[in-house]
Design brief:
With 189 residues, the protein is of the alpha+beta class. It has one domain: minor pseudopilin epsh domain (minor pseudopilin epsh fold, 3-Layer(bab) Sandwich), CATH 3.55.40. 28% of the residues lie in helices and 23% in strands. The chain contains one helix and eight strands. It has one helix spanning 11-62; strands spanning 66-70, 85-89, 102-107, 114-117, 123-125, 136-144, 147-155, 161-163. The strands form two sheets. It has a four-stranded antiparallel sheet, covered by helices on one side.
Length: 189
């Protein structure tokens, strides 16, 4: 069989392949979107967990209180955990970011469809690495068309962090007190 100098796909082959791809995208679209959101939540959760471990280790190595919180314009910790999070060494112990304090790390604000929540103004680690009364659950929730879910990081009084689990199998992990993470659209805040 003699081959042509020009080889390629016929029009029929291209139509069949493009039809197959279109059909696959129609069926895989929603699950692909949910998969991508789960991966974004996982990446942000790992970033938060890493920042918490960094803050705890820094408090021990610097022998000072280290705070992680969203800082407002006055240098005070606010409750809007969707804003950028600042990890700083509270060298003067006033629980306010000032010129005497060292900024150790800054995490970007949460993604538009994601909502971070914590039950306090700040997470503070003492020179022994303990969180004490600043312990609680830092949660991240994503609510988009094809996905609603999230994660919870539970911070013990000893300063250790563990992931919350979904014990009741409803798709949302529980916080330390056993209730679901607060999962709502950021516009509902």
């Amino acid at each position: 069989m003699k081959r042509s100098k020009y080889s390629g796909f016929s029009l029929l082959e291209l139509l069949v392949v493009s039809t197959l791809i279109s059909v696959m995208l129609v069926f895989m679209g929603p699950s692909l979107g949910a998969f991508i959101e789960r991966q974004k939540v996982l990446a942000q959760t790992n970033e938060l967990r890493s920042a918490l471990a960094f803050a705890r280790n820094a408090s021990v190595s610097l022998i000072t209180n280290v705070i992680i919180c969203p800082v407002d314009k006055r240098g005070k910790c606010s409750r809007d955990w969707n804003q950028p999070l600042t990890v700083y060494a509270d060298n003067n112990g006033n629980r306010r970011l000032g010129p005497d304090d060292d900024i150790l790390k800054v995490l970007p604000k949460s993604l538009p469809a994601h909502h971070r929540h914590y039950n306090n103004h700040r997470i503070q680690f003492d020179p022994m690495g303990r969180a004490g009364f600043q312990a609680g659950s830092l949660s991240l929730c994503a609510t988009v068309d094809s996905y609603q879910g999230g994660s919870a990081l539970i911070i013990s009084r000893m300063g250790r962090t563990r992931r919350g689990t979904d014990r009741n199998q409803d798709g949302l992990p529980e916080t330390a007190n056993g209730s679901n993470i607060p999962c709502k659209k950021p516009s509902d805040s």
